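Protocol step 4 of 6: record predicted structures for both targets in the notebook before any analysis. Target 1:
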Amino acid sequence: MRNELHKEIINDYLNGESSIKISKALGISSKVIRQILKSNQISLRDIHERSQKYIHDENIFTSITNDAQAYWVGIFYSDGYVTKNYQVGLCVSTEDIEHLHKLNKFFKSNYHIYIYKPGKTSYSNNNYCRLLIKSKKIVDDLCRFGITTNEKNPTSIINDLSVPLKKGIIRGMFDGDGSIYYTIKKRKKKDYKEFAISYTGNLELVNFFKKFIEENNFATTRKIFKDTRAKDTYYIRIQGNRQLKNFLDFLYKDVNESCYLTRKYNIYRELCDFINNTTSFKTHF
């Protein structure tokens, strides 16, 4: 019961409610509310932050007409979320805090990015950061695109978009819930990097991602796997350096740096360099 109360207090505070408002709603003194927040490593907002007037572009998602809009909608299909209090948020590892600065710039906003330490009721077991923006208009627009508090369904809009815009949405989904990695194996006594990608999500999102890859002849994904570590979570995995490069070229080649996750883009570049060096070696052999 106590943990549930703490979780409610933390969620309300992180969703923008003041400690005074929370204390009135729960019948607990604001001093106790602040003590609970501190004990869970939640940074308290200072006077400047509480009084500052925040700004953002209300009409940023009125329609999807460019790569940036498509990309960030894709992010919200994966890592992002909306709340019943008309807030739109994104949490990432502190390793990727630059990505939240990109999102803040996209929203044309001056909202603060908060950094949190892991706690018993926290989003992550590692340090993480969060950007949270309050806007009924933005939440309503995202709901039109199939992003609600209960579900995420890209099929409601994807068929009406051009290929370049679909590319942005798929890149956002992959940057949010995809992964790219490699293992080193021996081939003819030389180290060989064998790259792979995976995409994780609910069954509907994974099926959507799988169908897009197959219909565009990037690869054949034979099976959808059940992730036993989480409820209602599935994933696909694709291997083969050259077919992966074709798919990742489609996602990342000639894309503005404001519309990709730098960490994943750098591994894509590592794949390109590895293939180029391998091809060069064969040519000069």
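Target 2:
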Amino acid sequence: MDISIISKLVSIILAISLASERLVTFIKTLVPPLNTPEPPPVPPFSTQEKTRRFIVMILAFLTGWLAAKLMGTEEGFFSGRLNVGTEALPIWIPYFIIGLMASGGSAFWAKILEYIKAVNDIKGQFATQERMNTQMKMTAMAGGGGAAFKAVNLTGGAAPANPAAAEIRTVKFEAAFSGGVGTLSVKINGQTLNFAGSGQLNIDLPTGVYAYTVSGGASPTNQGAVVLTITAVTGSVISHSPHQYPHGPILSNTHPLLVS
């Protein structure tokens, strides 16, 4: 199954789970005994607490089932199905199965969605690396043959296929901080770009493949974050940019960059 279909399925279940949780919360406000007991707490294995949790689980299942039915187009509460695939490749899942899956809670499905996005990011990085390798092979063949290509080191510093004939390009590194002050350091080709706040710095690089290392720290507040964007002022670049870093320290991380 294509990962985009899995992502769509998880996104649908997450949306239904969030909707059912809101509805369950509303029902619990109307029926106070279903709320989590206030101190002194009810013993977790008492019959009263077991009954309360069981009813809440059933409510979560039924509200998820109802939300799936409202999202679907097929008639029939018991026999209806929801298409989580595409028109060309439909994948039909019964409403009650969607409701059962959604009853696991939005936190669980949010973690699954994060994992799927991480897998997509990794696939994107592999695709970027493959494009970089392909372009470097073509550059090496045009600028010095196989010997020039062997000089390329994707994990080291600069390594143009033909340094003498390499053209100079201007690359822009732009940092955007939010939620407070922070610092960011980018090391590339023996040079260091330091950011003490939002701004941009340009660097001239010969065409070729580089590895740049990012470190520093965003604001420690919950709203703290920093985004590093790399674009070409002249020529073109291929990178994993934009990089998004959450609040707190940014551990040293290295990425490839193709300048052409």
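Step 5 preliminary note on target 2. The CA atoms of residues 40 and 116 lie 41 Å apart. The radius of gyration is 26 Å.
Proceed to step 6 after PI sign-off.
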